[in-house]
Amino acid sequence: MAFKVTLVSTSPIDGQKPGTSGLRKKVKVFKQPNYLENFVQATFNALTPEKVKGATLVVSGDGRYYSKDAVQIIIKMAAANGVRRVWVGKNTLMSTPAVSAVIRERSGADGSKATGAFILTASHNPGGPTEDFGIKYNMENGGPAPESITDKIYENTKTIKEYPIAEDLPNVDVSAIGITSFEGPEGKFDVEVFDSADDYVKLMKSIFDFESIRKLLSSPKFTFCYDALHGVAGAYAHRIFVEELGAQESALLNCVPKEDFGGGHPDPNLTYAKELVARMGLGKSDTGGEPPEFGAAADGDADRNMILGKRFFVTPSDSVAIIAANAIEAIPYFSSGLKGVARSMPTSAALDVVAKSLNLKFFEVPTGWKFFGNLMDAGMCSVCGEESFGTGSDHIREKDGIWAVLAWMSILAHKNKDSIDGDTKLVTVEDIVRQHWATYGRHYYTRYDYENVDAGKAKELMEHLVKLQSSIPEVNKIVKGIRSDVANVSSADEFEYKDPVDGSISKHQGIRYLFEDGSRLVFRLSGTGSEGATIRLYIEQYEKDASKIGRESQEALSPLVDIALKLSKMEEFTGRSAPTVIT
Ligand code: G6P
Ligand code: ZN
């Protein structure tokens, strides 16, 4: 079928600067005339017309409200820009890690490979007509566009005058698998709809020993529950956990993807994953019955994960450290060793201790997955993670929620390989974590989030904290005035990173106060919100003494919390007497 290309005049729209992970705004902002179109064309222009012509592009996402409209618009614009093929996940669904896998691994029927992707998601932000939509671009390596590209996109949004579109191209039926072919002024244009679970399952099977996990899941001693929070993870969970690994159907909670995530907040943490938290015996109200041995949740686009044991929460910072410590033995993909490990700056130093003990290359990078991608492309990093519930490896260039669950299942299967059939007690998630603390010491850790704070006030608070850093003796005077029982602050700075691969420098990546005993306070402004500002406060204390590793973390950290709140004048600046979320 033939289509024509029309050139539509437009003008720049303010505020199209991509954040940590693309452009995220309320749906009503995206629905403004030309809003999405301007951003998409700005991206095509940043990539350059030569690269766009003939390209194979993936366009899909977490299926949130407005995705179906957005996909059709992008298909029409891709056709008009001379793109050769667009690959769409069935019903526009493709998790962020699956997009990365598809870019890296999939070959089309004619041997074609994808050159990049528009991922339609606002990740863990709520969805629906009055909530958030988002779009980000991923490159040929399967990872998020680097700052050099996102800066260009932003510059282009400020000067855009027109975009081409194939207005008469009929909407493609994204619910039916298959290829639809069109003929444009520049030749053939195909839209292929497929189920990305096939590619994703294949990749997972090449990494993990599914047989040993299947054995673990078949044991009556081991019980499991997975909550997709109505995000896109549900589209993979049934296939992997039930069909491939033999878990019970009843192990799946909220695994039907919904445009509004069932009205919930699709962020896998102790506050928002309420049902799972209750099932795991960690909620305020008891659901009755014995909680499962292992529980996990994902965010809207399935790149985040939360790992829980029976009545036990595993901090994401501990999770990546434990995966790194056990990867070589428990996960076939890593059996020949780890190239290196990395964490984001605000993530606790639990991984550092493992790296040191196993003599592994170690990197501390700014918040944002793209920094890991550079290390991985250069063969310097195998496993990495962030405090923000992201864990992953160099199998793709995004964090991977289901991968993290399979990594934990592999560790559980490995630790239980002799006991799974006999009468011996199961080695539980909690056992594994406590054993890890006994070996490496424990990093008590908590994060306080102050969401939707007045942006001006948040900036003032950060400026105040930077100003304080000019005199450490002065900081210590304040600290000792608040609590005499904490260590001295030994240094304070704003984190700055020089990428060891491309030499690029990222400044102002978080305000740090480092204490003599290894404790840390970190303050950052979130880069993923869509309204106002979110202040994140990260609090950490290292305890090597095995007799002191069993405390409740909020209690152990309360002196440092006290200092952080008073030092930053949190209540004074924000008017908030308590954080919105504590993890
Ligand atoms: C996204 C990125 C992560 C990052 C997180 C930070 O999820 O993919 O790499 O850690 O945002 O979010 P924040 O709201 O703290 O900027
Ligand atoms: Zn996400």
Report a brief summary of the structure.
Its EC number is 5.4.2.2. With 583 residues, the protein is an alpha/beta fold.
Describe the model:
This protein is an alpha/beta fold. It has three domains: 190 residues, 3-Layer(aba) Sandwich (Alpha-D-Glucose-1,6-Bisphosphate, Chain A, domain 3); 240 residues, Alpha-D-Glucose-1,6-Bisphosphate, Chain A, domain 3 (3-Layer(aba) Sandwich); 141 residues, 2-Layer Sandwich (TATA-Binding Protein), CATH 3.30.310. It contains 19 helices and 26 strands. The strands form six sheets. Strands 2-6-5-3-4-9-8 form a seven-stranded mixed β-sheet, sandwiched between helices. A six-stranded antiparallel β-sheet has the order 20-23-24-25-19-26. Helix 2 crosses helix 4, helix 2 packs across helix 6 and helix 8 packs across helix 14. The longest helix has 15 residues. The protein is globular, with a radius of gyration of 24 Å. The termini are far apart. The protein binds 6-O-phosphono-alpha-D-glucopyranose and zinc ion. The site of 6-O-phosphono-alpha-D-glucopyranose has 14 residues, from loops.
Estimate the global geometry from the Cα principal axes: globular
Instruction: Give the spatial strand order of the biggest sheet.
Output: 2-6-5-3-4-9-8
The major sheet is characterized as: 7 strands, mixed
Low-confidence stretches: none
For the record, the count of structural domains works out to: 3
Q: Please give the number of β-strands.
A: 26
How many alpha or pi helices?
19
CATH architecture heading of the largest domain: 3-Layer(aba) Sandwich
Helix amount: 25-40%
What is the CATH topology classification name of the largest domain? Alpha-D-Glucose-1,6-Bisphosphate, Chain A, domain 3
Which structural class is indicated by helix and strand composition?
alpha/beta
What does the radius of gyration come to? Answer: 24 Å
CATH class of the largest domain: Alpha Beta
Bound heterogens, unique:
6-O-phosphono-alpha-D-glucopyranose, zinc ion
CATH superfamily of the largest domain: Alpha-D-Glucose-1,6-Bisphosphate, subunit A, domain 3
Mean pLDDT: 95
Cα(first) to Cα(last) distance is 53 Å
Percentage of residues in DSSP E strands: 15-25%
